[in-house]
Amino acid sequence: MHSTYFLAIETSCDETAAAVFTEEPAILANLIASQTDLHARFGGVVPEVAARAHLQRLLPVIDEALTQAGIRLDQIGCIAVHNTPGLVGALLVGVSAAKMLAVALNVPLIAVNHIESHIYACRLAAGRDIFPCVGLVVSGGHTCLFHCRSALSFELLGATLDDAAGEAFDKVASILGLGFPGGPAVEREAASGNPAAFQFPRSLLNDDRLDFSFSGVKTAVLYTVHGQDLAKGHPPPAGQRRADLAASFQQAVIDVLAEKSRRALRRTGLRRLAVGGGVAANRDLRAALEQMVNEEGAELFIPPMKLCTDNAAMAALAVEKWRQQQFAPLDLDAIPAYTPTR
Ligand code: KG4
Ligand code: ZN
């Protein structure tokens, strides 16, 4: 039987990505052009630089995705795009390109929520249904727990009240002089450190809600490094002390994520935990969640690293919307803030 081919676009932050997949869904190509080199010297993502780089790179990335998939553009039967959340200028590049392609090819356009896609990456990687499940998204901009009744029905159970988990990793990397991007750098440094060397706060663990807070642990690392008088400008720590700080910080974040996910499983009575977002690439977090889920007699779904960090293949959530004919209008907007879709 003839399959429908989907072309998906992701430009929400600093990865320019395009993917081709079938209605199964099966991934035929998953291309990611990272902009890390462009932003590293600024110590973070600069929105205008990101948008400009998307403009330059998106069409070549789409071309390459089609080539790798062995599919011609005129064989594409549906265009999917992440239109929320993200940097508005960056999102607009992807949304505009997606609309243009949908019009030119005369095929449906589907708008996909990037946060919900991070959970769908688990469904893609598993190759089988994972719903209903508890969903944990741990990315650079978001930390959320969901009750996912189906791929298209997410109920928000809790979210961060301040910094996202990935944001805390990035800021602590900067405090420790580990550079950008912070998450992988902290993980590498933590590997030779003692996670019990410093007792950093596990915020909101005594709170009944499933919300998170990571600004306290970040500030605790800052004060431990510089003292309370930041004006004195101490040099970043080095050697074993730096490794111990990284390991202790990472452990504090992991403890909170694992414990709140355990509570979400118990509260919902669900037996599956699906985890997505860049921080889910962290090996120690993966191991801690695996252990917790085993203790709870539940099942863990985490995609391989390449599907944890930003990509366009996870927009295969579009296949579920396509089945329900949930198409987007051609005046589709880019929406920077995250609003749960239902
Ligand atoms: O999902 P993602 O690629 O982009 C957003 O949607 O935000 O997540 C990026 C975040 C960054 O904050 C990055 O530092 C973090 O994920 N990250 C990690 C690791 N790899 C990426 N955090 C901890 N450990 C890692 N190995
Ligand atoms: Zn993301």
Q: Which series of helices and strands comes N to C?
A: EEEHHEHEHEEEHHHHEHEHH
| Bound ligands, each once | 5'-O-[(R)-(carboxyoxy)(hydroxy)phosphoryl]adenosine, zinc ion
The computed structural class is alpha/beta
Distance between the termini: 34 Å
Morphology? globular
- The total strand number stands at 10
pLDDT < 50 stretches: none
- Please state the average pLDDT score: 95
The level of helicity is: 40-55%
Radius of gyration: 20 Å
Numbering strands along the chain, what is their spatial order in the largest sheet?
Answer: 3-2-1-4-5
* Number of discrete helical segments: 11
Largest sheet: 5 strands, mixed
Strand content: 15-25%
Task: Tell me what the structure shows.
Helices cover 42% and strands 19% of the residues. The protein is built from 11 helices and 10 strands. The mean pLDDT is 95. Strand 2 and strand 3 form a beta hairpin. It is α/β, with parallel strands linked by helices. The protein has a 5-stranded mixed sheet with strand order 3-2-1-4-5, sandwiched between helices. The structure holds 5'-O-[(R)-(carboxyoxy)(hydroxy)phosphoryl]adenosine (KG4) and zinc ion. The site of zinc ion has 5 residues, from helix 4.
